[in-house]
Design brief:
277 residues
């Protein structure tokens, strides 16, 4: 689920150091200033409480280094992040018909990670015990990282188009960048199009869309926020991955690298089946 994380994270972090080309005007706020405020808002995660988000996500050819454990298509995403317990979260994706496609939950206190997904109609569940002190970038953190890096690239562009559009609770800022790319003639990451819609009340991002290539693989992704709240507490059951009918359950000792666990534990179960014949 997190294959190639090191390469992707190093690339995205490097992009953060692209200096934004801010062009201020006396009459109105500039697109670069709005992007800068949105980037600051993204980086400032709540110090405490439980953050709950629901959003629509549409993907096409998304590199697994950026957004692992997904396939092309449209999904509704629900995720909860416990800022009182760093590293504790639950992520769940649902198909348009409401059926759960995948879910990942991790709790560093109980040292447990559960990953459930369906492939070719067969549901699987990996329930692993984590080693003491294991800490890896969570899926929500990786998504936030991708959005921050994309905004940094938009800031670096001198061709930002800003307009005000109506929203359900007032006017919103919409910023489009027709063409932005990383440095060099063959950038590792290239954005051919980028668009964000920002709520001026707190500079939160309510819509986000990018199209381009990563490691020479074309991809596009769009995000539309449906709900975003931070509560003092949440029903503990919300952090539990539900069981699915007919699922194959695989348990064992895990590591800080989820993709390693899925691969190794699957091979172990396959070996057991071969030896039992």
């Amino acid at each position: 689920m997190y294959g190639g994380l090191g390469v992707a994270a190093a690339t995205l972090v490097a992009i953060f150091f692209i200096a934004p080309a801010i062009r201020k005007t006396d009459a109105t706020i500039s697109a670069a200033e709005i992007l800068a405020k949105s980037a600051t808002q993204l980086a400032a995660a709540p110090a405490a409480g439980i953050e709950v988000l629901e959003y629509e996500l549409v993907m096409d050819g998304v590199p697994k280094e950026i957004l692992p454990d997904q396939v092309d298509g449209a999904y509704r995403i629900w995720q909860a992040i416990d800022h009182n317990t760093p590293g504790k979260f639950r992520f769940a994706s649902y198909a348009p018909d409401g059926e759960m496609f995948s879910s990942v939950a991790e709790d560093p206190v109980t040292r447990r990670r559960v990953a459930a997904f369906t492939t070719e109609g067969q549901p699987y569940r990996f329930d692993v015990t984590l080693p003491q002190g294991a800490r890896n970038l969570s899926l929500p953190e990786m998504q936030r990282l991708h959005m921050q890096a994309s905004i940094a690239m938009m800031q670096a562009s001198g061709n930002q188009l800003l307009e005000t559009v109506p929203g359900p609770s007032g006017n919103l800022y919409r910023i489009e960048v027709p063409r932005v790319s990383g440095p060099g003639s063959n950038p590792v990451w290239d954005l051919s199009e980028a668009r964000v819609v920002v709520d001026p009340r707190d500079y939160s991002i309510v819509e986000f869309a990018v199209r381009g290539s990563f490691l020479k693989q074309d991809y596009s992704m769009s995000y539309k926020l449906l709900k975003h709240v931070t509560a003092a507490s949440l029903d503990p059951a919300a952090f539990a991955v539900p069981n699915q009918p007919g699922e194959i359950v695989i348990t064992g000792e895990g590591t800080a690298v989820p993709s390693h666990d899925v691969f190794v534990l699957s091979l172990r179960e396959l070996t057991k089946l071969k030896q039992g014949r």
